[in-house]
Every structure is written in structure tokens, then in C-alpha cells.
Amino acid sequence: MTSEVTRSADEAMDLARRAADIEARLVKIEAAAVTAVGGIGFGKRVGEGTNIAVERFSEVAIHDGLQQELATIRRAEAKLRDGDAGRCDSCGVAIPVERLEALPWAVHCVECAI
Ligand SMILES: [Zn+2]
Fold it and tell me: How far apart are the CA of 49 and the centre of ligand 1, in A?
């Protein structure tokens, strides 16, 4: 029983660390976005603006992906608190330990994640 408690505490710490890491990256991307938008102005050639726009587009995609990942980690943290960790959010089966080891914040089994 004691080892199980320790394991959850470790998992919670892993999740918190991962969430903090993603939050830091989000802040960085958001700060860069503000700078980039301020940097596009009159006097620049259209081509330059387009390049920046394309760059911004991929940053937005990365940003969206990170936000989604953060939401999943927050969900995994809630499950851990509720003692519901390791169960698929969709079908309720136990998520295999190997999957949780590879992806500690997994909230869906392999079948439901696809
Ligand atoms: Zn499932």
C-alpha cells in the first residue's frame, strides 16, 4: 500500500513538472507572437510579411498542440487525485502499465486514443 502511495506521488510530480514545462513554452511562444505582430508594419516588403505569416502559422499550430497536451495533463492530474488514474476516459478499461510508463498522462487506452 505504501509503495502505491509513493508511486502516485511520483506520478503527480512528473505531471506537475511536465505541465510547468509546457506552460513555460506557451508563455515563450505567446511573448514571441506579440513581438512578431508588432514587428510587421509598413515599409516591409510583402514577401517578408508572408514569411512571417507562415512562421506564425506553424507557431500557432505548435501552440494549439501544447495547449491540448496541457489540458490532457491537467485531466490526468485530476484523475490521479480522484484515484481514477489508469482508467480509460472513454471505455473505462484499465490502461496498460506499459502505455502509462511511455505516456504517464495518458487518459485513454490505445483503442480510444486513435
Ligand atoms: Zn478506451
Answer: 45
* b/e burial code for range 50-73 (CB count within 10 A of at least 16 → b): eeeeeebeeeeeebeebeebbebb
Residue 86 Cα to ligand 1 middle (Å): 11
Listed by start position, the domains of the chain span 2-84
Predicted structure pTM score: 0.72
Q: From ligand 1's centre to the CA of 110, what distance in Å? A: 7
Divide the 114 residues of the chain into consecutive groups of 10 and give the mean pLDDT of each group.
68 92 94 67 58 78 94 94 90 93 91 90
Cell of 95: 490502461
